[in-house]
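Appendix B, example 12.
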Amino acid sequence: MILLSILTIYPWVLIAVLIGFLSLIARFYEIKYAELYKGVPGQQTRYLLFSIPLVLFLVAAGRYVLNRDFAGNMLADVALFVGGILLAALAYRLQRLMTGESR
């Protein structure tokens, strides 16, 4: 049982670390843009919004570990779905800002 819990939580920890890195990249870009273009209005990457999918993924992981089942938990499934959609939207927005496709 302990091994199952460890194997269940390990990928979620890796996902949380990747989301954290993505948030740090967004923060770095926002700070560097402000330093380089002091007279121009700054690019708002809204890096703090990356904490919402992080929390939702951790809630889903916690629910999955407590129930010892990956399917059938409605709260975890909804948290995972909403977190995934929000993360995809934020990552797409960050990619567009960093490549200069939108201002």
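The longest helix spans residues 2-36. The chain is about 75% helix and 0% strand.
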